[in-house]
Design brief:
Blueprint: H1 2-19, H2 24-41, E1 44-55, H3 62-67, E2 74-82, E3 88-97, E4 103-117, E5 123-135, E6 144-145, E7 148-155, E8 158-165, E9 174-182
Antiparallel strand pairs: 1-2, 1-9, 2-3, 3-4, 4-5, 5-6, 5-7, 7-8, 8-9
C-alpha cells in the first residue's frame, strides 16, 4: 500500500510538472529536458556493476536478514557526460538480482555534483539523485517510479555509487551500491 501511494504521488507530480506553465515544476521539467538532450548529444559510455545491497540492521529482524540476498550481481549500460563545472549526468539501465534473488531492472537518469582533489583532479566525490523506474517480481514487473538520493566517490574513470532506498520495518531501508566504469 505504501509503495502504491508513493508511486501515485510521484507519477502525479510528474504529470503536473508537464502541465505547469510556470513555477518550480516547469523549471524542473525544462532543466531535465535540456540535460537529457545534452547527455544524448555529447556522451561517453558507462558500464555499471551492482555489487552490494546492505539491509539496514536497525530496521530488519534476524529472520529477514538471514534469507535476503545482499549480493545483487548484475550489469548495466549507460551514457553520460560531465559538464564544465564537473557535474556528472547520465542515463542508464541496470539488471540485477534483488533481495529475494529475483531479477529486477532499473532504468534511470542520474545527476551528481562533484568535488575534486589531487594534482590533476583525478579524485572526486559527490552527491546527487537518480530518477527512474524499477520493475520487480512482486509488482508483476509493472514499472514503478523510484526517485533516490545518490552519493559517489572515485578515481579517474571508475566510481563507486550508493543509493539509499527508504522503507519501513523489514521492507526497503537498503543501501544499494554499484560501480561505474566510464569508458
Amino acid at each position: 500500500m505504501r509503495t502504491k501511494l508513493l508511486s501515485t504521488v510521484v507519477l502525479l507530480g510528474c504529470c503536473l510538472g508537464w502541465q505547469a506553465e510556470a513555477g518550480w515544476w516547469a523549471d524542473s521539467y525544462n532543466f531535465l529536458k535540456t540535460d537529457i538532450k545534452e547527455i544524448w548529444n555529447e556522451h561517453d559510455y558507462d558500464l555499471f556493476v551492482p555489487f552490494y545491497a546492505w539491509h539496514n540492521r536497525l530496521t530488519y529482524d534476524r529472520e529477514h536478514l538471514d534469507r535476503y540476498n545482499e549480493y545483487p550481481w548484475g550489469a548495466g549500460l549507460g551514457i553520460s557526460h560531465i559538464n564544465d563545472e564537473g557535474t556528472w549526468s547520465g542515463l542508464y539501465a541496470l539488471g540485477f538480482k534483488d533481495s529475494n534473488s529475483y531479477f529486477e531492472t532499473y532504468f534511470g537518469y542520474a545527476r551528481q555534483w562533484n568535488w575534486f582533489a589531487g594534482s590533476e583532479n583525478q579524485w572526486h566525490a559527490g552527491v546527487g539523485y537518480t530518477l527512474g523506474l524499477t520493475q520487480r517480481h512482486e509488482y508483476h514487473y509493472i514499472p514503478v517510479p523510484l526517485p533516490l538520493p545518490l552519493v559517489g566517490a572515485g578515481y579517474r574513470n571508475i566510481e563507486v555509487h550508493g543509493a539509499y532506498i527508504p522503507g519501513v520495518k523489514n521492507d526497503g531501508n537498503v543501501f544499494f551500491m554499484f560501480a561505474r566504469l566510464h569508458i
